[in-house]
């Protein structure tokens, strides 16, 4: 089957140029340039397909200025798959122009090879104190020198140990009612191990036995959306083999982007591979976001103590628009005794992270992030819950820039706090 950019000809002509995408695109809101909104990008792609335009530096730049947040996709009256068109354009660019040396190194050597990735992270943990300094109030890290990262960018430190090394391959419970495999993803494994711990603790307390496959690797999303399809396919096949070996009821994820890859993107990516397309579909049918799984567990609410705290929630793009998970996190938060849930305005608007977008386009991403931080701040909440580690890091950066003290955590961590609070005194609660 033809997977070239030309094969998307029928898709580009579906755009009726109505401009609905202008109302929802966070990048267009800032730049106000037709070439940076879905309608304009589709026209540019159509020009390349018809050979009226070349793969110029300007075209490449405009394709990079997409957050892949899917806001235009779900609001398009014609149902144009703009994100897939941009992805196809990036694939064309990668094949015809090649990847940058940095991306080539990261995608084809580091992310693709688990041993190299682990070694790199281990080395990074040792030397991160030399390259970064502590952020305000000891929170996060700021670059000491130019590393291709804006020196104002607050990052979270690498954990002392990878999450997968902290647990046995199977975290057992007595009288298990369910058995699941946990896809950790890169950020939980190497940075936010507290989220991974919360996922395990909450599921264990609900009688769920958790398998953590040691051979799992990056989901491959950064590789795929930057156009390196062959490497992404190799990574997808490896993860499919690892997880389909396990005899489990479900594969649980705690990241919307990882979940979307496993649930839908693998099958699309491998649709021309007769040896893997059905396997990819089978894996996809087993994938559940952590919050989806929890609300399906009978009696999960009865294990909570009282948490007298005000909470708001940010919808990650790939969780709410990709996996269609919206009410489940709110159901969990509202079920916690003592919690006051305050819905922020435009909770499902992109925070500006876009994965590596916030590294390559930091100035633009901070402007988009400022709107999110303002929405968060206006709620008066003490805790912001979310379902994506990349969103967590980017919003923490925005709160830091504006000097707003607030805890940002995964919904799993908030639920873990509620479980830990059961039977505790108010004094001990303050120490959680």
TrEMBL record:
How is the cofactor bound here?
A: Binds 2 [4Fe-4S] clusters.
Q: Which reaction does it catalyse?
A: glycolate + A = glyoxylate + AH2; (R)-lactate + A = pyruvate + AH2
Enzyme Commission number, as recorded:
1.1.99.14
Which keywords belong to this entry?
4Fe-4S, Electron transport, Iron, Iron-sulfur, Metal-binding, Repeat, Transport
Q: Where is the 4Fe-4S ferredoxin-type domain?
A: 4-36, 56-88
Q: Which cofactor does it need?
A: [4Fe-4S] cluster
Is Lipid biosynthesis included in the keywords of this UniProt record?
A: no
| UniProt GO MF annotations | 4 iron, 4 sulfur cluster binding; glycolate dehydrogenase activity; metal ion binding
Keyword Manganese among UniProt keywords: no
One Pfam family from the record:
CCG
Q: Give the enzyme's main class according to its UniProt record, as a single word.
A: oxidoreductase
The record's listing under PROSITE patterns reads:
4FE4S_FER_1, 4FE4S_FER_2
Q: What is this protein's function?
A: Component of a complex that catalyzes the oxidation of glycolate to glyoxylate.
Instruction: State what protein this is by name.
Output: Glycolate oxidase iron-sulfur subunit
Originating organism: Desulfosporosinus lacus DSM 15449
Give the source lineage, highest ranks first: Bacteria, Bacillati, Bacillota, Clostridia, Eubacteriales
């Amino acid at each position: 089957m033809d997977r070239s950019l030309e094969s998307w000809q029928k898709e580009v002509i579906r755009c009726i140029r109505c401009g609905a995408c202008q109302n929802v695109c966070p990048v267009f809101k800032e730049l106000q340039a037709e070439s940076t909104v879905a309608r304009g990008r589709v026209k540019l792609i159509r020009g390349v397909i018809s050979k009226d335009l070349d793969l110029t530096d300007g075209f490449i730049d405009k394709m990079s200025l997409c957050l892949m947040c899917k806001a235009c996709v779900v609001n398009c009256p014609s149902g144009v798959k703009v994100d897939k068109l941009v992805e196809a354009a990036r694939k064309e660019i990668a094949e015809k122009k090649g990847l940058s040396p940095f991306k080539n190194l990261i995608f084809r050597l580091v992310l693709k090879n688990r041993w190299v990735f682990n070694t790199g992270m281990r080395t990074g943990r040792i030397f991160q104190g030399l390259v970064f300094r502590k952020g305000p109030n000891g929170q996060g890290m700021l670059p000491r020198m130019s590393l291709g990262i804006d020196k104002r960018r607050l990052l979270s430190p690498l954990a002392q140990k990878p999450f997968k090394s902290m647990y046995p391959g199977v975290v057992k419970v007595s009288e298990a009612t369910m058995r699941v495999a946990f896809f950790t993803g890169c950020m939980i494994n190497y940075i936010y191990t507290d989220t991974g711990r919360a996922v395990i603790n909450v599921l264990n307390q609900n009688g769920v036995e958790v398998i953590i496959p040691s051979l799992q690797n990056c989901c491959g999303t950064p590789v795929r959306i930057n156009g390196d399809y062959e490497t992404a396919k190799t990574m997808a096949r490896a993860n499919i083999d690892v997880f389909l070996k396990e005899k489990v009821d479900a594969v649980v994820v705690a990241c919307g982007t990882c979940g979307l890859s496993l649930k839908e993107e693998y099958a699309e990516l491998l649709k021309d591979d007769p040896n893997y397309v059905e396997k990819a579909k089978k894996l996809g049918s087993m994938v559940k976001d952590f919050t989806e799984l929890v609300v399906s567990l009978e009696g999960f609410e009865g294990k909570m103590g009282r948490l007298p705290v005000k909470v708001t929630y940010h919808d990650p793009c790939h969780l709410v628009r990709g996996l269609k998970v919206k009410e489940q996190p709110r159901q969990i938060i509202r079920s916690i005794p003592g919690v006051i849930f305050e819905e922020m305005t435009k909770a499902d608007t992109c925070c500006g992270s876009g994965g590596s977008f916030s590294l390559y386009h930091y100035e633009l991403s901070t402007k988009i992030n400022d709107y999110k931080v303002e929405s968060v701040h206006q709620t008066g909440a003490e805790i912001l819950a979310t379902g994506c580690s990349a969103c967590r890091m980017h919003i923490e950066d925005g709160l830091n820039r504006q000097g707003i003290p607030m805890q940002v955590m995964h919904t799993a961590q908030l639920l873990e706090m509620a479980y830990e609070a059961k039977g505790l005194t108010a004094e001990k609660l303050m120490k959680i």
